[in-house]
Amino acid sequence: MLSGTITRSRRLDSPSGIAHVVITVEHKSQRQEVEMLRNVYCLIQVVLSGPRFDSVANKLQAGVQVDVEGFLSLQQGRNGQNRLVLHAENVELKT
């Protein structure tokens, strides 16, 4: 699970006709590690696929805070570089 703020959002359809919402989520927190406080930061692309996300798709805009649950997968970009992408299985909008 990852909590954070959406910094970017876009909708697209795959060549096979599957609707996707692709968001970028920024996570910031602090955690204890070996008795020291550590700043935690990440910026990750999240893919929400299929009709089960239709009800929230229009609400997934920059500035919205979300909790996303899913799995990580390696994705190769057009430039040949690999990156980790979170594929959402569940998303909650935080108010």
From TrEMBL:
<keyword id="KW-0639">Primosome</keyword>
<dbReference type="Pfam" id="PF22657">
    <property type="entry name" value="SSB_1"/>
</dbReference>
<keyword id="KW-0235">DNA replication</keyword>
<dbReference type="InterPro" id="IPR023646">
    <property type="entry name" value="Prisomal_replication_PriB"/>
</dbReference>
<dbReference type="InterPro" id="IPR000424">
    <property type="entry name" value="Primosome_PriB/ssb"/>
</dbReference>
<dbReference type="InterPro" id="IPR012340">
    <property type="entry name" value="NA-bd_OB-fold"/>
</dbReference>
<keyword id="KW-0238">DNA-binding</keyword>
<dbReference type="GO" id="GO:0006269">
    <property type="term" value="P:DNA replication, synthesis of primer"/>
</dbReference>
<dbReference type="GO" id="GO:1990077">
    <property type="term" value="C:primosome complex"/>
</dbReference>
<dbReference type="GO" id="GO:0003697">
    <property type="term" value="F:single-stranded DNA binding"/>
</dbReference>
<protein>
    <submittedName>
        <fullName>Primosomal replication protein N</fullName>
    </submittedName>
</protein>
